[in-house]
């Protein structure tokens, strides 16, 4: 089995909602690859993920 390196597919989500003069905001961190990683794991493939916010600093270049 070969290891897989997945770079990216993570992001911050910010939402705003308004009703009349009231405005509310919320934010969260999301991983868009969760199901993909699980599907690969179900087939015995090990995935190491580097989040999108860390790619520039952590991704090794040749």
Question: Can you offer a commentary on this structure?
Answer:
The protein has 62 residues and is α+β, with helices and mostly antiparallel strands. It has one domain. It is 21% helix and 45% strand. It is built from 2 helices and 4 strands. It has a two-stranded parallel ribbon. Strands 2-3 form a two-stranded antiparallel ribbon. A hairpin with a 2-residue loop joins strand 2 and strand 3. The longest helix is centred in the middle third of the chain and has 9 residues. The two termini are 23 Å apart. The mean pLDDT is 90.
Please describe the structure with a list of short key phrases separated by commas or semicolons.
62 residues; 2 helices; two-stranded parallel sheet; 4 strands; alpha+beta
Short description:
It is built from two helices and four strands, in the order βββαβα. The protein is an alpha+beta fold.
